[in-house]
Amino acid sequence: MQRRNGVQNSYFFSLLLLGVVLSAVSRRLEPLYVVLPLVIALLYSRLTRVEPRVTVQCRVTPLRVFEGDPISVQLTVRAETALPPTELWHLLPPEATCLAGHHRTIFTLQPGEERTFRHAVVFPHRGKYRLGRLYSRVHPGTDLQPLLGAYRYDQECHVYPHVTLLPRHLSPMHTHASFGNYVSGAAGEGLEFAGIRPYNSGDRVRRVHWRTSLVRQQLYVADYYSERNADVVILLDTLVSLGSPQLNTLDVGVRAAASLAAHYLYHKDRVGLIHYAGVCTWLSPAAGQLQLSRILDALLGVHTLFSYLTGDIARIPPRVLPPGALIFVITTMLDPRIDVALRDLLARGFQFVLLIISPAQVMPASRQPTHVEAAARLWRLEMDLRLHELRRMGVPVVIQDSEDPLAGLYPIMSGGRLWPRAR
User: Can you spell out the DSSP letters for 112-168?
Assistant: First the structure.
């Protein structure tokens, strides 16, 4: 701990100097008698060198949460000597909000006493934040020279984008033989029971149905329906972002991408991610909980970076865009470079769903709502004109009309969808 002069020191020295000057001018001792307690307080604060010994620990759990989930912070203070009134302050990032408890407290401790303070912190936006920076201020005696201490227990918290649970599953059109939740009509490797048939040469012994074989006095084997899964690729347009730091089109698109990835990975599909910007980056399709962690970590640092370059879909390797994959294109359609990517996908015969994030949903409230409504209607008319060709070719197009950009997926993908054919 370091000793610092309090604010009262300057006031005390000013009053002491004033008393000496008045005593010298008036040639009387009464002004000195008035400021004598100040002299005693200043001398006492400098002659007493009591430094309490204290141990501070900070524990933050959990370190990986989603937007809006609370983070518990536990501060443990143990005093080896008597601790005078002490102020303990946990410095929070500007984006954080203290949901429960207090991150700044004042207390006293007896020798050997230990106290624990808890508070909950919430981050409304995705990102990486550091917690665990503590500052203390001990007020001994006259409090003219408080003791300041700093403790660094830096712990990085990852706040992932909010995941919205989809009420119904949106089944892809093409699947391939692998473990998954889609059941094929053909017999093969799987868990769904298909029937019992006589044993043929080459059948596995572990598939022998012994109960039926004992009854019929010949070998019978059990057949199962083969399992299949699909390849899903999420293409996130990060060329343009509109709105405020608290609410913008990029954050809405990131939350939609995280929700789609979590949904299809839950159904054992292989999911990949492509950041479409001046320079494209990607994650190859894979299945499992580890792939969800990779996608969420990749979405954690997504931001808009200005560039004159145009990402070329043709340079993305086939292992990232496998044939027959279902592609979700999440974009604002505000940059004409995304049109090039859509034409490339159509030329290569991919099936994709176009999710358009509406800027009208993220614009701040205006004093003249009619102007905002007129701007939203003009933007919608322009989108209808630009998307006419895609709709004519059978591409499912979803334009955000509410806070949930995925709300329009169900009526479009479930009711007689048409897909563009390869040319």
Answer: T-EEEEEEEEE-SS-EEEEEEEEEEEE--TTSSS-EEEEEEEEEEEEEEPP-PPPSS
